[in-house]
Design brief:
heterodimer, A: alpha/beta, Rossmann fold, 4 strands, B: mainly alpha, 2 domains, two-stranded antiparallel ribbon, 20 helices
Chain lengths: ~100, ~450
């Protein structure tokens, strides 16, 4: 079971992308837990995650987020066009590739 | 487009965002206000019910006995008392909690209690009361004055919450302030002693400062903060020019892919919220409405379909655009857009790093806010007096936020239509430029 955490300003816009990613994961029979939170909730959520994806609008939090997770796991900023067009497959594929490369 | 995403301006904005987004006190402010928002919205909702539906002289008064309506209003009044009227206490608690979390401090309950306790320590627990039929004022002891715990004390709560919590964390990390007990004492007992001294010191400091202010300057804490911080800053940030400037800077950041909340959440929202509260309280008490610019005013007139009033851009694309990718992205963005979520269109189209679309994205809110401001001044629409969720769809939002003024909803429609024509010329240029680039590429091939 892999865990992908998405972070944005209020966890609101990112939840659209999360739904798309979940559909892709389900169609491909992948057991992946995907969820979105606001950056204020990062502290309570990062430990369960294998990778943390930041919405491009909070990309400026990358350095700060890496500090919070003590560089224990990858922190990536989602490509802004993939994000805006809610390209669930592209985002999921990239995330899985990074997790595998690390694992 | 790509050149702009790699320009030095982009870097500079990212640096500012990083600094402000990482600054722990500013972050704490944003997080705390996010925690407070549901209470504001509940208060807004009850205000709306009491002032529109349960108004004894309103339209419901024709169907139900006015006395019955007045009795029912007490439900809303009690909720207003527990939300709006003690907002500063809620803010102090929320600030304290989020500062602890952001600092990674584990024993959160101690600083929270210290902040709450301090808020009361610095508040004079008396009011001057003039009984009806009398001209003489009486000093009534043993009350917590709502005037101190409601909107006017917002910055007191912010300052107390931040300082008390930071002091507490400093004190509790100081080895000299910890008690060393020899022998086989359970850790829990030692721990309880080790918060005792920081708590005592912390509250004592505020009590002494508050006492000194009173003795030396005949000022209480609240009056001092209002005079030195709230009044002057509020004058800058919530005057029309200041408000437009900060909003535009925030939207410019969004044009460069950085969420506008990093600017407005810290520089604008505290003032807008305070104005919002003032207005809600005045509206509830049937007094003159003090402010035009407030939290819901911004959301109602400048966040229609999301930041930059992007609902108008969507309409412009649906009617006039020839680019299929623009049309597809707009279709996909329509549902989020109805709830004022504009990230899909901002990043999907994209507006970000695209100068031809960034310009109208910044101009549109300046136009709409100015129009709405002067429409309010002229009395064409009622003041915005009710906090509504920012995700309330446009047109409905105007109606609700003004306490049920259909003219505000009509104004929103007019602004949306006019804004289509702000976006349109830039959209045309943008499509023309991309068309030229495309044909140039084809020629080269």
């Amino acid at each position: 079971m892999k865990n992908i955490l998405l972070v944005c300003n209020q966890g609101m816009s990112t939840s659209f992308l999360v739904e798309k990613m979940k559909t892709v994961a389900k169609n491909e029979n992948l057991a992946i837990h995907i969820w979105a939170v606001s950056d204020a909730e990062l502290n309570d959520n990062w430990e369960q995650a294998d990778i943390i994806l930041l919405g491009p609008q909070v990309g400026y939090l990358k350095a700060n987020t890496e500090k919070v997770v003590q560089h224990s796991k990858p922190v990536e900023v989602i490509d802004f066009v993939d994000y805006g067009r809610a390209n669930g497959k592209a985002v999921l594929d990239k995330a899985l590739k990074i997790i595998e490369a690390k694992g | 487009m790509t050149s702009l995403s790699k320009s030095s301006l982009t870097d500079r904005l990212a640096h500012i965002a990083q600094a402000m987004g990482g600054q722990i006190h500013l972050r704490t402010l944003r997080d705390a206000f996010a925690s407070i928002m549901p209470f504001m919205i509940l208060a807004g909702f009850m205000t709306l019910i009491n002032s529109v539906f349960l108004d004894p002289v309103g339209f419901m008064g024709k169907f139900i006995k006015p006395e019955t309506l007045t009795t029912w209003q007490s439900i809303g009044t009690s909720i207003t008392n527990g939300t709006l009227n003690i907002m500063t206490l809620l803010v102090a608690v929320a600030i304290s909690y989020h500062l602890c979390v952001n600092r990674g401090y584990k024993n959160v309950i101690a600083p929270i209690l210290v902040s709450l306790s301090t808020m009361i320590v610095i508040t004079p627990l008396t009011i001057l009361f003039t009984p009806t039929g009398s001209t003489e004022k009486f000093l009534v002891p043993g009350v917590i004055p709502v005037s101190y715990t409601s909107a006017s004390g917002m910055f007191v709560a912010i300052i107390v919450g931040l300082i008390a919590t930071d002091l507490f964390i400093k004190f509790s990390a100081n080895k000299k302030l910890q008690i060393n007990i020899a022998g086989n004492i359970p850790p829990a007992v030692i721990k309880s002693f080790n918060v005792l001294i920081p708590i005592m010191l912390n509250i004592l400091i505020f009590a002494v400062v508050s006492f000194a202010l009173k003795q030396l300057l005949n000022l209480d804490f609240n009056a001092l903060i209002t005079m030195v911080i709230t009044k002057p800053l509020s004058y800058v940030t919530t005057s029309l020019p200041g408000f437009l400037l900060i909003t535009s800077i925030a939207n410019l950041f969004f044009g460069f892919g950085i969420h506008q909340a990093v600017i407005s959440g810290a520089l604008l929202d505290p003032f807008l919220l305070q104005n919002m509260q003032d207005n809600m309280i005045a509206y509830t008490n049937h007094q003159e409405i003090p402010h035009i610019i407030n939290m819901a005013f911004k959301d109602t007139f400048a966040v229609m379909g999301g930041s930059g009033n992007t609902i108008s851009l969507l309409i412009a694309i649906f009617i006039f655009s020839k680019r299929t990718d623009y049309r597809d992205t707009s279709k996909m963005s329509l549902v989020p857009c109805l709830f004022n979520i504009s990230e899909p269109i901002i990043f999907g189209l994209p507006i970000v790093f695209n100068p031809m679309l960034i310009i109208p994205f910044v101009l549109a809110p300046i136009f709409s806010l100015t129009v709405a401001y002067f429409a309010t001044v002229a009395g064409f629409i009622n003041h915005v007096v009710v906090q509504i969720p920012w995700t309330t769809p446009p047109v409905l939002s105007g109606f609700l936020a003004t306490g049920g003024d259909w003219r505000a909803a009509a104004l929103q429609i007019l602004i949306i239509i006019a804004t289509v024509f702000i976006y349109l010329p830039f959209l045309k240029i943008d499509e023309h430029v991309s068309q030229m680039q495309l044909s140039k590429q084809q020629n080269e091939e």
